[in-house]
Design goal:
By secondary structure, the protein is mainly α. The protein is globular. The chain has 13 helices and no strands.
Amino acid sequence: LFFYFHKPINLNVFLFPYMLETLSNSQLIIAFFIILSAYIVRGITGFGSGLIAIPLLALMLPISLVVPMVGLLDYSASLGHVVKLRKNIQWQYIAILLPFSLLGVLLAMYLFNTIDAHLLKKFLGGFIILYALYTLLSIKTHSYKSYFWAIPSGLLGAFIGTLFGTGGPFYIIYLQLQGLGKTAFRATIAIIFLLDGSVRITAYGFNGFYTEKLLLVLSICLPIMLIAMYVGGHIHTNISHKKIQKIIAIILLFSGSALLFY
């Protein structure tokens, strides 16, 4: 930052050709900090990176760039969690979920190529606000074990996740309804994100979203994500998990409002 403010250079020239005409140096630094913050949170809580990064980055960049990019970063983050917690995965809750997730991805990819980008941004803002209010009001889901919940959770999680990269809340609620323990919950949600991400990334690839320019952006963002995940995973803090969720919800409330009314 000291170097930037005292000797400005055009970072866009050699880092982000795609953003040459859309991002200033200051916006580029802000984007870096958004990604860093989002994945520190992911390292602490095991989720939430897309909910933070996507609405904030979408204020500066097209959703068609942001969602596939964050999707690949989230996939990499989930892979690390799965390797670490693989023995605690509850596969019985996943098998019934996958067919409906696949259907949700196919439907979303059709809409991704037909719905106006401005309208997509409004829908994303509204969804983010609703989820932030859900968290702030501390709405609790009681244990209600039933495979039926895999149908709406799989469809909506994959549908919203493919369009906006933020389908995690539906999967989280689904597993909360099954009454899983803390470790089993983290392990199972990680593999759901990984499998869901595999389908979405494949769909993005077949539809031409992963261009050379976007992969160049990813090559710069990946080290930032890895550093943030490492920091988040080793943070020792007195802030409770519940307070962290409240802070995230407040951030989401502001970012969702910005998307909805911008």
